[in-house]
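pls ignore typos typing on phone
pyridoxal-5'-phosphate + seq
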Amino acid sequence: MIDLRSDTVTQPTEAMRTAMARADVGDDVYGEDPTVLELQERVAEMFGHEDALFTPTGSMANVLAVRSVVAPGQEVLCEASAHIARAELGAHGAYSGVTMRTWMHPRGQVDLASVQTLFAPEMGPFFVRTAAISVENTHNFAGGAVLPLGDLRDLRDYATGVGAAVHLDGARIWNAHVATGTPLAEYGAIADVMAVCLSKGLGAPVGSLMLGTRDAIEEARVWRKRMGGGMRQVGILAAAGLHALAHHVERLADDHAHAKLLAEACGVDPETVDTNIVVVPRADAAEVVLRAAEEGVRVALVGPTVVRLVTHLGITRDDAERAAKVLAAL
Ligand SMILES: Cc1ncc(COP(=O)(O)O)c(C=O)c1O
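k done
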């Protein structure tokens, strides 16, 4: 089977498993795991943030990050197909009392005019106040689209002007970095708080981080524990993340090339594929998923008429070429 359902299906490489087996560990709830501390420090530094916190999932990192800048009864604005709105199962409302309003963009981009229209300042005890604006880069359900740095900077300036925070869901920020050459610190600079994942294109089995100020991270540590995310000798997992950062970032360019090849086979303009995700509109999407599986290619149904293909560490050039043949025939 060639598995293109998601970049979360990767297997740890032998070298990653060795790094995990050799990791120095301690009790991270006591803040004593040296490998976790190293990872947190390294990632915070990469993005120019004061501090970082290791979390089991990207969803938890997003929940902790958003709640650190949006109080219960306040709102965050985001694009309608953002992961925080569509795929975290209402966590921001259920755990943090946060509401959301959304703008729509077919490529998940910042639409500053819509943000300005939606933005609600403090208006007394009558209306929900907008406390933060969230962006996702790359944008998963918009086909791994990159958000241009200029748009993000304009949003940052606007948010600063109106006193709102910016949250960046950077689950795949590494792909945006490799696709555009934009330094990670420049992406970090547009956000007050952000989340990044090691368990997507980077190929670690588990792990994400929330980034922000020292105070925000201190508070998030309490909430992580409250949510059941306080982990113990978790340096074994952090070591996988450190290994991935050292060895699996630059190779994302291969995934991007493979995605273009698959796009072409599926009749999608490769120029619209920025990174490692291809979304294919098909009226018979469920049927396509079944038939592709019969031919040895697993693809995902992410909407009634949308098939998604994602390239990753486990897909070689040969796999991509074989999958392209199967998909072209369908
Ligand atoms: C953009 C984005 N943000 C956050 C997440 C959440 O990550 P996790 O599955 O680790 O909770 C995902 C997962 O695919 C994602 O695509």
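Residues 57-59, 62, 83, 136, 140, 169, 171, 197, 199, 208 surround pyridoxal-5'-phosphate (CB under 6 Å). Residues 85 and 100 are 7 Å apart (CA to CA). more later
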